[in-house]
Design a protein that fits this description.
Elements lengths: L4 H14 L2 E7 L5 E6 L2 H4 L2 H15 L7 E5 L4 H11 L2 E6 L7 E2 L10 E9 L3 H4 L2 H6 L3 E10 L10 E7 L4 E2 L5 H4 L4 E2 L10 E2 L2
Helix pairs in contact: 1-3, 3-4
């Protein structure tokens, strides 16, 4: 996991200024619960802030990897992937899935054999979603050269065997749904991520 103290400080400043770091009762995409949540979309809604974060990532990557394409999972990674691709001079594509199926390229997107692909995700907790893009890249005969995330919530343990670049590392307490103290106190959990598009709230 590649991080840099000064870049971490700058990125965290953007997240705090934009209100991307929230407090409450949240269900994460992994199904675990937390009393804090990083809503990176808030830091990407202003193109100037998106470009600032992408510039920080370019600094962090330096010459460690070169990419022809930035591939992101829908929906959370789309804007981040687009901003990053623009900064490093790569194509931007995104993968999506319907009805729980595997990620696929639609809308005319395609990867070419031999292309170098940088996988972009706004927040990595377990890395489950972005890791599902790896077989998609390999089936096309392209190569994953690394992962680029705004926020690493994995406490540095996400290790896919390739370069991982994180602008900021944020450690939040997480609880299994059946052992969540906020649920035990009668709280209702919000799932703010893009994995639930109906805006529904659920009580565990």
């Amino acid at each position: 996991m590649r991080v840099d103290t000064s870049i971490d400080r700058e990125a965290r400043g953007v997240l705090e200024r934009c209100g991307a770091l929230r407090e409450g009762h949240f269900v994460l995409s992994s199904g675990k619960h937390s009393d804090r949540y990083c809503q990176c979309a808030r830091a990407l809604e202003d193109p100037k802030d998106a470009a600032l974060l992408a510039g920080l990532m370019k600094r962090l990557i330096g010459g460690a990897v070169e990419a022809d394409v930035v591939l992101a999972p829908a929906l959370g990674g789309i804007v981040w992937g687009y901003a990053l691709a623009g900064e490093i001079g790569a194509r931007s594509v995104f993968a999506e899935r319907a009805d729980g199926a595997a990620f696929t390229l639609r809308r005319g997107f395609a990867l070419r054999e031999g292309e170098r692909v940088l996988l972009a995700e706004d927040v990595i907790t377990t890395g489950g979603s972005v890791m599902q893009l790896v077989p998609l890249v390999e089936r096309a005969g392209a190569a994953v050269v690394g992962f680029a995330t705004i926020v690493d919530r994995s406490k540095g343990v996400f290790d896919p065997g390739r370069e991982v670049f994180a602008l900021a590392q944020v450690e939040f307490d997480m609880f299994e749904a059946d052992g969540c103290p906020m649920c035990a106190a009668g709280g209702t959990a919000e799932q703010p991520g893009s994995s639930r598009l109906d805006g529904a709230r659920r009580k565990s």
